[in-house]
Amino acid sequence: MSSPGQVSSVNPKDLGKVVVLFGGPSAEREVSLKSGGMVLAALQRQGVDAHPFDPATRSLVELANGNYDRAFIALHGRFGEDGTVQGALEWMRIPYTGSGVLASALAMDKVLTKVIWQREHLPTPDFIELEPGFSAVEVASRLGLPLIVKPAQEGSTLGLTKVRTVEELTPAFEKAFAFDKHVLAEAFVSGGELTVPVLGEGANAHALPAIRIVAPGGNYDYHNKYLGNETQYFCPSGIDPALEAEVQALAVRAYQALGCSGWGRADVMLDEQQRPWLLEMNTSPGMTDHSLVPMSARATGIQYDALVLRLLSQACLKSSLQNNGAQ
Ligand SMILES: Nc1ncnc2c1ncn2[C@@H]1O[C@H](COP(=O)(O)OP(=O)(O)O)[C@@H](O)[C@H]1O
Ligand SMILES: [Mg+2]
User: Which pLDDT does position 36 carry in this prediction?
Assistant: First the structure.
């Protein structure tokens, strides 16, 4: 495994015929269209035989007859980041970027992710899964106020509410419930926000520099993520180097605990005492040239085009028919 700063020595011609999957039917379609469009352009200008494919407008079944050697997954959210497309590609034996079926599905679900992290004694804010008819008073008294209510399976801050009073809890639950039948209430963490890209797999997984995010009013919502331009991103993060190293190590352990591979990005909050808490793992992060993983890679000298090429060169199948006793 090469170190993060090393320049990729991949020959674009060796990568064969490539399909870039982007768009898709999820709530994050618009972001994916931007990510995939830029990934496609980066591959093509480096001489890769890359082709676009939008699973919202064409059946994935068509991929089976496309003679593709690899797939770059630039889909976000459901039917793209959640293990479903990964399963289809495994079945068609087309090597693909990023995590496999199980890690993708686990990371897509914030409740299951947190259960696994808790089992590994990794710090993640206390939470309660909310069922219809829950007691708002009990939830607020255990988690404290403010707290966060969010759907287990949605990204881009959709359906998320910062709840400040007991009365706001039920409306917040209903809003999240419209996105997903699994909803969680989570203790609020208030000292700062970081996000940490991780590349590689297993013992070779390694973190890139953390990015510190400062959103207007501390509110990193859909608008402040994608539409407005008031959110500030710092990379180098400017935090204490020992804390940065601790957060990077935590991100790697969080990634390994879920069995992620290829690449990912851990969202982390700091509390008032500057202790890190894991929020979630993104297994198909935003990939526009303004996105966070490219920003962090650039800080180590890896430019956007080289990053895209490197991720693609590591595309692989994660399920093998060998050694299972089948003839
Ligand atoms: N427990 C929490 N405490 C403080 N802020 C939170 C918490 N959970 C989420 N947030 C804020 O909401 C944003 C989105 O939440 P996150 O769990 O990363 O879901 P997603 O990015 O999939 O929508 C975070 O980047 C953070 O700004
Ligand atoms: Mg997030």
Answer: 98
Length reported for the chain: 327
Q: Are residues 117 and 210 in the same domain?
A: yes
| Ligand 1 and 156: CB distance under 6 A | yes
Report whether residue 125 contacts ligand 1, using a CB cutoff of 6 Å. Answer: yes
Catalytic residue ranges: 28, 156, 226, 265, 267, 280, 282, 286
Distance between CA atoms of 179 and 302, rounded to whole angstroms? 36
Asked if 207 and 277 sit in the same domain, the reply is yes
The tens digit of pLDDT for each residue in 20-51 reads 999 999 888 999 999 999 999 999 999 999 99
Q: Could you tell me if residue 315 is inside a domain?
A: no
Taking residues 155-180, report their average pLDDT: 91
Give me ligand 1 centre to Cα 148, in Å: 8
* Ligand with smallest separation from the Cα of 160: 1
Angle, helices 101-108/241-258, rounded to nearest 10 degrees: 120
Q: The domain containing residue 113 runs over which residues? A: 107-123+189-283
pLDDT in tens, 178-199: 989 999 999 999 999 999 999 9
Regarding the beta carbon of 267 and ligand 1, being less than 6 Å apart is answered: yes
Give yes or no for residue 156 having a pLDDT over 70.
no
For residue 237, being part of any structural domain is answered with: yes
The Cβ-side half-sphere exposure at 246, using a 13 Å CA radius, reads 15
Residues at Cβ < 5 Å from ligand 2 ion: 267
Answer whether residue 146 is part of any domain: yes
What's the whole-number mean pLDDT along residues 286-295? 95
Mutate which of 26, 160, 275, 278 for ligand 1 pocket (most atoms within 8 A of beta carbon): 160
